[in-house]
Amino acid sequence: MSLTARELWGVIHGLGLGSLFLLAFGGGLAGLYSLRRDLLTEAGLRERMRRLNWGAWGMAAVAWATVISGTWKVYPWYRATPPEGTTDLMDFPRYRLLASEATAGWHSFGMEWKEHVAWIAPILATAVAFIVWRYGDRLADDARLRRAVTIMFVMAFLAAAVAGVYGAFITKAAPVL
C-alpha cells in the first residue's frame, strides 16, 4: 500500500486532524457538562479546569491546523485548472465534478459550502478556549455562562462536522490524487 504526497496530506488533514478534533470535542463536552461546583471538591475543580483549559486550547489549535492545511495545502490541488485541451480530468477534481450533471452539485453546493463553513469551527473553538481561560472556575458557578459556552462548543463541532462530511463525500466522488 502506498500514498501519494497529495493523498498523505488528505489523510493528515481529514482523518488525522479531524479525528483529534472529534476526540477533543468529546472530552471538552463531557468536561463542560459536568463542571458543577456541587459535584466537585476544590482540588477536583482545579484539576478539571486545568484539563478543560488545555483541552479547549488544544481543540482550537487542531481546528486551526485542519482549516489551514485544507485551505493552503489540499484545496489548491482540488482547484487546479487543467491545461487547455485536457480531456483526462483525473488530476483535476473540481473540473471532474463539474464535467457531469450527476456530480456537479458536489462542487457547486457541497464544496462551496464546505470551504466557508469550515472556518466557523476554529473561530468558535478559539472563543470557547478564551472564555474557559478567562472565566476559569467561575464557569462551575454560572450555569448561564456554562450553557452559552457549551452551545458555542457544539456549534464549533457542527460546523466541523458539516465540513468533514462534505469533504469525505467530495473526496469519494473526486479524490485529490
Q: How does this structure look, described?
A:
This protein has 177 residues and is an all-alpha fold. It is built from 7 helices and no strands.
Fraction of residues in H or I helices: over 70%
Uncertain segments are none
The whole-number mean of residue pLDDT values reads 92
The overall strand count is 0
Q: SSE string, helix = H, strand = E?
A: HHHHHHH
Largest beta-sheet characterization: none
Distance between the termini: 14 Å
Oligomer: single chain
Q: Whole-number radius of gyration?
A: 20 Å
Secondary-structure-derived class: mainly alpha
**β-strand amount:** under 5%
What would you call the shape?
elongated
Number of DSSP helical runs = 7
